[in-house]
Amino acid sequence: MWLLTVFSSSQSNSTYRLEMAPKKAKRRQQAEGGSSNVFSMFEQSQIQEYKEAFTIIDQNRDGIISKDDLRDVLASMGQLNVKNEELEAMVKEASGPINFTVFLTMFGEKLKGADPEDVIVTAFKVLDPEGTGTIKKEFLEELLTTQCDRFSAEEMKNLWAAFPPDVAGNVDYKNICYVITHGEEKEE
Prior knowledge:
Keywords: Calcium, Metal-binding, Repeat
Helix content: 40-55%
Number of helices: 8
Pfam families: EF-hand_6
Protein name: EF-hand domain-containing protein
Order of helices and strands: EEHHHHHEHHEH
InterPro entries: EF-hand-dom_pair, EF_Hand_1_Ca_BS, EF_hand_dom, Myosin_RLC
Radius of gyration: 18 Å
Largest sheet: 2 strands, antiparallel
Structural class: mainly alpha
Domain EF-hand: 45-80, 115-150
Strand order of the largest sheet: 1-2
Strand content: 5-15%
Distance between the termini: 32 Å
């Protein structure tokens, strides 16, 4: 699994969250007559964002993401003790050398089948009978740590760091849904 979740560019003060679905991703499936061209799955602005992220990861600028590139970029993010086996597993997710087209294809494959925002919001609404748009932190944490694919303590810590509850202990699930499906927080 790619561990490359957040990149900051000091030149543009941009943040890239690569593990989440990009804005308005066009999820065309070949069975429905969609194009097999990976570039047709994304808008031009999305492709540019992925290209910027690729360039950040490709530390030696040779056009291929290698284990050394991954090690260097993870070290620049403070993850210094990454095992060689973990890096090999990341690189082996691709069928060959990871150039930009392969990189984009890998994200396109990860995004296939992601539920649209309204479907995810509707699922959360079941847990919000008053329709406030929020859920109590304790309730959400109990569900996520005791049901189905249980979250670990580390995953919960990351969730609360990304989506801190308000002073009353409420979590804005609509914002979570937006970020899951768009890859960034709404601009206010």
